[in-house]
Amino acid sequence: MTELSDLELIHPLKLFDIAKNEKRFLYASAPMVRYSKLAFRQTVYAYGTDLCWTPMILAKEFNRNRFARDSDFTISTNGPQPPTIVQFGANVPQELARASSLVAPFSNGVDLNCGCPQSWACAETLGAALMEKRELVRDMVVETREQLRRDGWAVDKEKDINNPKGRSVSVKIRVHKDLRKTIDFIATVLGPERDRHIDWLTIHPRTRSTPSSTPINLEALEILTSTFGTRVPILLSGDVFALNALPFTSPLLTTRPTITTTTTPPRDITSCSSEHPRHNQPPTSLPNLPHVSGLMSARAILCNPALYAGHSTCPWSAVEAFLNNAVRCPLPFKLVLHHLSEMCGPGMGADKSALLTKPERAAMMACGNMLDLIDFLDGRRGVRRGIFTL
After folding, report:
1. Does the N-terminal or the C-terminal CB of the chain have fewer CB atoms within 10 Å?
2. Can you state the angle between helices 179-190 and 134-150, rounded to 10 degrees?
3. Could you tell me if 357 and 279 lie in one domain?
4. Across residues 368-380, what is the average pLDDT?
5. Buried b vs exposed e over 200-216: b needs ≥16 C-beta within 10 Å?
6. Do you know which InterPro entries this protein is assigned to (predicted)?
7. pLDDT digit string (tens) for 170-225?
8. Are 126 and 149 a contacting pair, CB within 8 Å?
9. Per the structure, how many domains does the chain have?
10. DSSP state, 108?
11. Residue 85 maps to a domain
């Protein structure tokens, strides 16, 4: 078994460089409550995801409770350890710095959540509530970087891109109704021209109150990326449903050929989130955003872990990979079922074919244990027995 000290952790900015040299976006899997666990991260990593996020972890509880540390952050010491960013929810500089110090030996970097719109988080001055606290956010990332430097980690951004002890500090944000406030926020958090405070920035171009059914604000994204995109790499989070149907154009948009993944005729083209309305617009109406460096997917990659590999829908091989990973990196059984209900149903892209029909998914959800679940899926696959080799 690999020792923790032997983990090879590449600097995330090097991954950005690799993607840029390949003339493509960096591909990221979003922080999703409950879902961005190790087994899922390993699955998406096997299908082309460059950088994975953990679910948001509350820094204060993580610092004080070993049970929180055991349950909230799991790594692999025997098998693929995907490049992983640990996302924290915090509102005190010292809490974020201490939590970051704890995970630095086992992760590629840390990220501060300034985008979660849930009411409980905002009531605790976490998540999107921090968009009104730009000086506090600046102080948190500065204190975190200084703590990691004191611990011996290399945190000088591009200067340490090839350093095996290189670690990143980043922030994920939403936007304000008044975009001038967002510009002020980013300028404050980003800091000096010659020595910025963060390695990169993830922008979800919706406000705290904008529902996910509303298209992202492309005008805001265009302004923000043109203003800051030459200073810092920017990831787009939101409406990344399919690589061949993004709501904008880019010099990095060299999408892989679409791979039809179902082996049966398309089924169950009902009831899922509707295709993004912008995808029906003619290509000439799409803005060009040359300063977006990467894409972050949440809902779409939950349905289709092979999204970045060019698959139009989730392939059976991804189901097999997830089950193998879930056995080796155990998840609560109900969570495994929920993952599979998403993966076996219609996805978020234009292709609404599904691995299982709605009645079949209902039958799958009635399985009482892992053995029954594997037998059920093995039978529905219909190609050969024993497909799930655990």
Report:
1. N
2. 20
3. no
4. 93
5. bbbbbbbbbebeeeebb
6. Aldolase_TIM (IPR013785), DUS-like_FMN-bd (IPR035587), tRNA_hU_synthase_CS (IPR018517)
7. 999 999 999 999 999 999 999 998 899 999 999 999 999 999 999 999 999 999 99
8. no
9. 2
10. S
11. yes
Strand partners, 297: 29
Distance CA 189, CA 108 (A): 21
Residue-level pLDDT at 257:
60
Cβ-based neighbour number of residue 154 at 10 Å: 17
d(CA 247, CA 280) in angstroms, rounded, equals: 9
Q: Are residues 285 and 326 in the same domain?
A: no
The pair phi, psi for residue 108, each rounded to 5°, is -90, -15
Mean pLDDT of the region 36-56: 96
Q: Which domain range does residue 14 map to? A: 4-264+271-313
- Given a cut of 90, whether residue 384 has pLDDT beyond it is no
Range of lowest pLDDT (13-27, 181-195, 372-386): 372-386
Q: How far is CA 167 from CA 43, 133, 274, 373, in A?
A: 23, 25, 39, 40
Q: Are 244 and 330 members of one domain? A: no
In-domain check, residue 345: yes
Give domain status of residue 74, yes or no.
yes
